[in-house]
From TrEMBL:
Alphabetized Gene3D superfamilies for the sequence: Hypothetical protein af1432 (1.10.3210.10)
UniProt organism field: Clostridium lapidicellarium
GO terms assigned for molecular function: hydrolase activity
Domain of life: Bacteria
Hydrolase in keyword set: yes
Keyword Plastid: no
First-tier enzyme category under EC: hydrolase
Keywords recorded for this protein, A-Z: Hydrolase
HD domain: residues covered: 47-164
Documented EC number(s): 3.1.-.-
Protein name (record): HD domain-containing protein
Residues forming coiled coils: none
Signal peptide region: none
Length: 167
């Protein structure tokens, strides 16, 4: 990810708010249980997830007509739901991204620290949370693997990862 995107993300996080059409969009695309879980996320995370979902919708409308858009929109809105376990503020996140780079991933060893655990393992934590309320395995798979760049050839995952990265 370029420095330009990082700076943009930093600015977005500082100025995050949900307007009425965001709130409506969330309500339309999530059921009651999903909505309840989603609302446990910080405002920054909710705003990020909505932006990811808007881009997913745009890409699907423009390029991919045969995709299950409602599934992918749910995945976009819920992909970071594993972050409900702790609030990672923008400074935490900047330090974690930097620490991960400098330590070449060895920061992972300090998973006894909650913020570090959530940073690295929120996809798995999110999938485990969603298992209680979701039956759709593809949705669980997308959430669990949204940072797994080794998986190739899954169009849904490619779209989700791309939209996550640019937001
Ligand atoms: Fe994530």
């Amino acid at each position: 990810m370029t420095l330009f995107y990082r700076v943009k993300q930093f600015y977005w996080a500082l100025t995050a708010e949900l307007n009425d059409s965001d709130k409506n969009f969330i309500k339309v695309n999530l059921n009651e249980n999903e909505f309840r879980l989603f609302n446990k996320l910080s405002l920054q995370e909710r705003k990020h997830s909505v932006k990811v979902a808007y881009d997913v919708q745009k890409i699907c409308n423009d390029k991919f007509k045969n995709i299950d858009v409602s599934l992918l929109l749910k995945a976009a809105l819920l992909h970071d739901v594993g972050k409900v376990y702790t609030k990672l503020n923008i400074l935490d996140k900047s330090l974690l991204v930097l620490g991960d780079k400098i330590s070449k991933g060895r920061l992972k060893k300090f998973c006894n620290i909650k913020k570090i655990k959530v940073y690295y393992y929120h996809p798995k934590l999110g999938k485990e949370l969603l298992e209680n309320i979701e039956k759709n395995n593809e949705l669980l798979y997308l959430v669990e693997n949204h940072h797994n760049n080794r998986i190739k050839g899954n169009l849904n995952l490619d779209i989700l990862r791309y939209c996550d990265k640019i937001n």
